[in-house]
Amino acid sequence: MKRLFSIGMVALLAGCGDANLSQLESVMEEIRRAPTGQPPVIIPTIPEYQPVDYRYSDTRSPFLAPESVRATDVVAVFDSALAPDQQRKAEPLEQFPLQSLRLVGTLRMGGQQVALISAPDGSVTSVREGNYLGTDYGQVTDIRPQEVHITERILNQQVGWQERQATLSLDE
Predict the structure, then answer these.
(1) Could you tell me the superkingdom of the organism this chain comes from (predicted)?
(2) Fewest CB atoms within 10 A around its CB: which of 26, 48, 73, 84?
(3) Residue 133 and residue 56: Cα distance in Å, rounded?
């Protein structure tokens, strides 16, 4: 068996021994001399990249909705009937921006419509009409089977306190 394998290998290697490549070299030389018909492509020089420092990392991201100004952050005081009650104890969902809260369900308990709100920390809290949520003093004004209507109070530097309507809808 070894002898048969050795003879086969010698026969295979013998085919590689005659390196008559003159025909291949002549064909390659003809290809090199033939005109291409197109001028060579000139690659333009690319200017060197100059990095620029971003100096606004400590300010609001332009990709997020603007946060409303909290009453405690404002020096000017506006006399308005819309001003929120600063003495009221904050409810659990008021620590989260309204954009981060999700309506996960509604149900009827004791004749009252109740909404189930999921917070970013994973907790689910039930709210009724009159409860507060969001960082802009949002108050639940209406609970429907598919959505919750909220009235937020925001402070505008020019005109004082204003109301803004918002809705949390049930994602299906």
Answers:
(1) Bacteria
(2) 48
(3) 30
d(C-alpha 116, C-alpha 124), whole Å: 6
114 pLDDT more than 50: yes
90 is a domain residue: yes
**Residue 10 domain-assigned (yes or no):** no
112: in domain: yes
Number of Cβ atoms within 10 Å of the Cβ of 60 = 10
Residue matched to tokens 């909404």: 115
Q: Which pairs from 60-67 meet CB under 8 Å and 24+ separation?
A: 65/99, 67/97, 67/135
pLDDT, tens digit, 9 for 90 and up, residues 26-72 = 888 888 888 777 777 888 898 998 888 877 777 767 776 665 444 44
CB 125 within 8 A of CB 111: no
Q: How many residues does the chain have?
A: 172
